[in-house]
Amino acid sequence: MKRKQLAPHIHANQPASERYMYVLLALLPILIGAVFYYGIRVLILVAVSCAVFFLCDFFCTQKLYPELPLHVDYSSLVSGVILAMLVPVSASFWAVALAAAFSALLVKQAFGGAGRNIFNPALAARAFLQIAFPTQMVASEQPMENFWKIGSLLTGNAVPSSAFSASGVGTLDVISGRICGMVGTTSLVLIVIGALILFERKLFSVYAPFSYFAVILLGYIPFNWSGVNVMDFFLWFIRGGILFVGVFTLHDCTTVPMDKRAQCLFGGGAGLLTLILYRFGNASYAMVYPVLMMNALTPVFDYYFRPRAFSKSSWYREVEE
Q1: Residue 3 lies inside a defined structural domain of this protein
Q2: Tell me, what DSSP letter sits at residue 56?
Q3: Please, where are the H alpha helices in 134-251?
Q4: Does the pLDDT of residue 318 top 60, yes or no?
Q5: Model pTM?
Q6: Do 102 and 87 fall into the same domain?
Q7: How far is CA 257 from CA 96, 181, 199, in A?
Q8: Is the pLDDT of residue 6 over 80?
Q9: 2 & 127 share domain
Q10: Residue 239's closest CA among 147, 294, 144, 169?
């Protein structure tokens, strides 16, 4: 929230706030599609999530850094929108608000604010919801049923949903997003549009997402040899949030390693953990927990994959020793 150019952004010829604005622009098509499919309730969840993230950041920075001029960097709004896109439309607004406060205060501000957090704030908030409110995190609302529905806004809708199944779902439904799922993860074409916007603005580093998707695509058959179903896989890949998470969280310059080799290892490790959780554990955990576990290893990657010092053959032998 304060005007400062943190280390992950220092090599870019633009302030951090401008980068976050372009991420919001990339999320805009997905948000519009979510409102089209699930109605006005999506806007309420987005407003609550963004407001809590913003207010927590604002009051913390005012308290901790009163000597610095106020400057909005929009990171709280990005986290708020991503969190709202990763929950079912039936979730209660107070559960989303509680998760946003938890993430903003304990995951982000406790480590020093934007640019210093170890874990991705939006994914940490979503993981909190998965543990604290598991029944609300089950997507059960069908798209395009009632645009103006805002019922259960306080309590949430805990109606159980069927498992991922390809029955009755067409290819166009999967591509367009007309399937039951989290509000912002169901549309293949809208997520791709968001990725293209990030790529055009040079904010999309392909190394971690590519290795993440490659490991999942190549490892799905060996991990599910007894019951391979292509449509079930793509339903899980899109409806389960794997595509959305790979596009919007695996190029974060704070929680993802800086070195390209480390980014490949980061993405590959997240993909492998995703397959393990999907095949042998709880499939609902496969969306956010693998990335968070790899976030914890980012400082280790950054330590061992340092750039070579100028005029030195290696970092360790000629610099540290």
Answers
A1: yes
A2: H
A3: 171-176, 188-200, 207-223, 230-239, 242-248
A4: no
A5: 0.87
A6: yes
A7: 29, 30, 18
A8: no
A9: yes
A10: 169
